[in-house]
Amino acid sequence: MTIDWNHFTPLSSLAGGVLIGVAAALLALCNGRIAGISGIVGGLLRPQRGDLGWRAAFVIGLILAPLLYRVLAPLPEIRIEAGSGLIILAGLLVGVGTRYGAGCTSGHGICGLSRRSPRSIVATLSFMAAGFATVFVMRHLLA
Amino acid sequence: MNLLFALLSGLIFGLGLILAGMANPAKVLAFLDLAGLWDPSLALVMGGGIAMGSLAFALARRRTQSLLGLPMQLPTSRQLDRRLIGGSVTFGIGWGLAGICPGPALVLLGSGSDKGMIFVVAMLAGMGAFEILERRSVAAANDKHTHGKTA
After folding, report:
1. Rounded to an integer, what distance in angstroms lies between the CA atom of residue B2 and that of residue A123?
2. What's the rounded mean pLDDT across residues B111-123?
3. First to last CA, chain B
4. Which one of B3, B5, B9, B81 makes the best mutation probe of the A interface by having the most chain A beta carbons within 10 Å?
5. Is the CB of residue B140 less than 8 Å away from at least one CB of chain A?
């Protein structure tokens, strides 16, 4: 294993992680909800009375975040290497998978591990392993 | 009031993703590429998030109502099944293909990225497919149940 020290950003990544934790804390303590993005978005596709407002507000906040960030500082680099076909396939798999698996990097990875939930520990190990394996296949076997 | 806090939470979450480097798919893939030039930064994102989250959920666990007087709706299921693992593996494959998971996808959409928008549309289609399949399997289960009773 070779560590890429040039792109290693320990301070900003740790600070960003803490901010994500603060956001999850806010939603749990004030709204009584888990900050799991796939669950919040998925719930919008299964409309229930009185349940849509907070979901929509949270999603709008996420979408507005880069606009607010730009006011405070220049946006960091965003580079998407995948072509459109691969993006569509990836999006479909992420959509279906997170709903069957009942969570993603936020709901299982951050909130679930914070709660020491056995389901989230298993889910996080599963998607991390699949992510590592997929990148290995794409970059080192197929490329 | 609860809408305001949800909006604020979404905003802070998004700012955190951007600052952390999670909104840059190339950086996410560099984290997932253990055999290449490995960028371990995103392990620190999880570390920071879980440290804060652990404090918050230790407090949240003791409450039956949120600070705004809403019911605490934290997951209670403990079932480890094929759905959980199969779904998570499927998600992980999709994540590894493009380096994008649901939160960063919405941030990319907000940043005006075309590919971000394409990803979000595909992700919503995947979630929609799940809803349709779920409704069908629930209906089929109910059907079986009523037939069982009349037979």
Report:
1. 29
2. 97
3. 53
4. B9
5. no
- pTM score: 0.94
Distance CA B52, CA B60 (A): 12
ipTM: 0.96
- Intra-chain end-to-end CA distance of chain A, in Å: 19
Q: Where are the domains of chain A?
A: 10-141
pLDDT of A12 over the 90 cut = yes
Alpha helices in chain A (DSSP H): 10-26, 37-44, 52-72, 84-100, 113-114, 118-136
Is the CB of B139 inside 8 Å of chain A's CB atoms?
no
Q: How many helices (H) and strands (E) does chain A have?
A: 6, 1
- Residue B79, both tokens: 């079932």
Q: Tokens for A8? A: 């290693």
Best of B3, B4, B7, B13 to substitute, by most chain A Cβ atoms within 10 angstroms, is: B13
pLDDT single digits (tens) A45-100: 998 888 999 999 999 999 999 999 999 999 999 999 999 999 999 999 999 999 99
pLDDT over 70 (residue A103): yes
